Amino acid sequence: MAVFLFDSAGGDAGSILFLALLILGLYFLPSILAWNKGDFGSVLAINFFLGWTLVGWVIALAWALKSEPKPTQVVVQQSAPQVNPPSELCRACGKYSPWGSRFCNSCGQPFTMGGRA
Ligand SMILES: [Zn+2]
Fold first, then answer.
1. H/E run at residue 110
2. Which tens digit of pLDDT belongs to each residue from 54-81?
3. CA triplet 80, 85, 91: central angle to 5 degrees?
């Protein structure tokens, strides 16, 4: 029915689509503004369910504008110092050899069980 109304008003399909997107974009403006913020879910809920009431839309907009940006979680993967990986520390020369080695790769010193020389 709406299409016929727009047709009678002289709009073609393209402009109707554009108008629909414009209205949709305006309707979800609060959600768009809250996109990267912590309260995005809440704003979207109010925007979606109460946005058709002007009050709900304004509340969603206000909430979107006041909510803090989501703290960006920067995960710094610091690789642990290469000491812990299974390896044998040679007591004689202080170099590491692959875990399970019986003799030091560098100086040939024999490893004893328990790491005691
Ligand atoms: Zn050694």
1. none
2. 999 999 999 999 978 766 677 777 665 5
3. 110
- How far, in Å, is the centroid of ligand 1 from the Cα of 110? 8
Q: Give the global pTM.
A: 0.47
CA dist 107 and 51 (Å) reads 76
Looking at residue 54, its pLDDT comes to 95
Instruction: Report the pLDDT averaged over residues 14-25.
Output: 94
Separation between Cα atoms, residue 40 and residue 81, nearest integer Å? 40
**In angstroms, what is the span from residue 103 Cα to ligand 1's centroid?**
8
**81 C-alpha to ligand 1 centroid (Å):** 20
Output the CA 80–ligand 1 centroid distance in Å.
Answer: 23
Expressed in angstroms and rounded, the spacing between residue 97 Cα and the centre of ligand 1 is 8
For CA atoms 107, 111, 116, 117, the dihedral sign is: negative
